Task: structure prediction
Amino acid sequence: MAQSNLAPAQAAHDKLKALGILALNGMFDEMDAVGVLRYAINEVLPGDLAIVSSFGADSAVLLHMVAQVDPSLPVYFLETGKHFPETLAYVETLKKTLGLINVHAIHPNSEDVKRFDPNGDLWESDPDSCCHIRKTEPLEPITEQYGGWVTGRKRYQTAERGVLPHFELTSDDRIKVNPLAHFTDADVIEYRQAHSLPEHPLYAKGFKSIGCAPCTSAVAEGEDPRAGRWRGLNKKECGIHYDFNGAIASPMSAAARHTLWKDGAFIADPFKSWTEGTDPSEARYTHVPLPEFIAHREAYLANPHPLGLLVLPGDRIEDVAEDVSRFASIAVAFPAFSDGRGYSTARLLVERLNYAGEIRAVGDVLQDQIPHMRRCGFNALVVTHAPTREALIDNRLPEMALFYQPVGRTEVPLGTRPFLRRVS
Result:
């Protein structure tokens, strides 16, 4: 896989500083898509640019332009595992027809899918998390290798894209190139016909914007081309795109977007907040309050979906001792820094109930508490406090070497003689 060419990327960034992103956008006619692409590949980021393609309804147009300018340009396709069979066949058709020689499929992390979407139906209950696991997370380490990347976005597709420029300078000093920004649906069709490009097999069936099969439907005549994406949901983008004004998606890094710290990083969290009145048989990827679980125990035990348990100060984890293994995650609340009852709950889970799943601390989680939390068994943290987030990322947590109250059977409290300690 191509590695980032740091010298051209730095030179390009310096050039953009001098010209300004607005000046760069002013260099090209609105419809000069090939000129935009050629300049981006040869002058702005030579050897440090890639394209991300959905191989959807409009993809043949941009990929045809890529083949004209540089057929060896790296092309990445997000193989989410949820595509229409027709889309997968279309990938092979375009590779062969256009002579693209550097196409790569990006797959989601299998462990993430197993953990967050074991039944493959996360798209139904939480499409944002599904997109994040299957698209945003797999793509991020790829795009980080390049100084910029090319997209097929167009202004006409949604109101949010109505201000889309040819070039965007992102908050992490990379460049997004949108050669087709000013193309209309009619322009795309005309170009495709003029060059006899193969049409996506589903286009003639009313699929004008094509993503993953579960979240894509056909659109009616005159309807917004992307109306068939996540139809009926308050969702318009998968999260891999963001523009200069942040209207499409937040231009933050993965660490800034997430609040769940686990295994040494801020990661996507498939669990959402508990909603009062949720049907016990329909609940999924949420932490059920302990009293609610007890009140409807049989229904929750019969529920086949992944569930978590929420334990508040005063709740007795012993009351659900025989059921703790039912939960993929147990969230222990710390409503205030001074309330330490959550530490005891974690120790009970680990030392007496032998719970081996995720134990997460939620609420008032501050950096001074984290060493204590880890000692007691917490292996995940929901952190919103900015200084604590920075301390975790920079590995600047306070160290703890002396203990007055030992945890487990290995720690020795300060001021005692280890050889006189009694091991139970």
Q: What stands out?
A: Residues 1-6, 158-162, 241-254, 417-424 have pLDDT under 50 and may be disordered. The longest strand covers residues 329-334. The domain at 258-394 is CATH 3.20.20.70 (TIM Barrel). Residues 301 and 326 are 7 Å apart (CA to CA).
